[in-house]
Amino acid sequence: MKRVLTIGLLAAGLMGCATPEAQLETEHTYRVEWIGERPLIDRSNLTIIFGQDGRAYGNAGCNHWFADYTLDGKTLTFSTPGSTRKLCAPALMEQEQRFLSSLGQVQRWDFSAIEQLRLWPAEDKPLRLWHETP
Questions:
Q1: Confidence class of residue 36 from pLDDT cuts 50, 70 and 90?
Q2: Own/partner pairs for 75-80, CB < 8 Å, 24+ apart?
Q3: Range of the domain at 112
Q4: What pLDDT, in 10s, does the model give residues 40-87?
Q5: 9 occurs within a structural domain
Q6: How many domains does the chain have?
Q7: How far apart are CA 56 and CA 101, in angstroms?
Q8: Is residue 49 assigned to a domain?
Q9: The domain spanning residue 111 has which CATH number?
Q10: Phi, psi of 40 (to 5 degrees)
């Protein structure tokens, strides 16, 4: 009897530790850490905010960017991103172009085991982002 009770309590405790599946949050900032296989240039600031109105926007490192997005379960797509047209250092401009190009190729999203948001293109490695806390 003790063994059955112990197993039941253990199972109930483990179920209580289960966390619900993480969801993509709107109106919160996600900070980009990697674009595919390459980390960001030191001190560059790339962000994504998913608006409740189906528009995404943020900082592309040099310019501000914007695009429509469609979210359906784990499927995520962006329209072709637009941006302001400020000129920055060549390395920042190249990184910004890789970022904007990567956004246009995103097809799905998930969270890694360490709760990092990953935006997956059809091919290659994902964009990896962290949820920024206020």
A1: very high
A2: 75/107, 75/108, 76/24, 76/106, 76/107, 76/108, 76/109, 76/119, 77/106, 77/107, 78/103, 78/104, 78/106, 79/104, 80/104
A3: 26-131
A4: 998 899 999 999 999 999 999 999 999 999 999 999 999 999 999 999
A5: no
A6: 1
A7: 15
A8: yes
A9: 2.40.128.270
A10: -70, 155
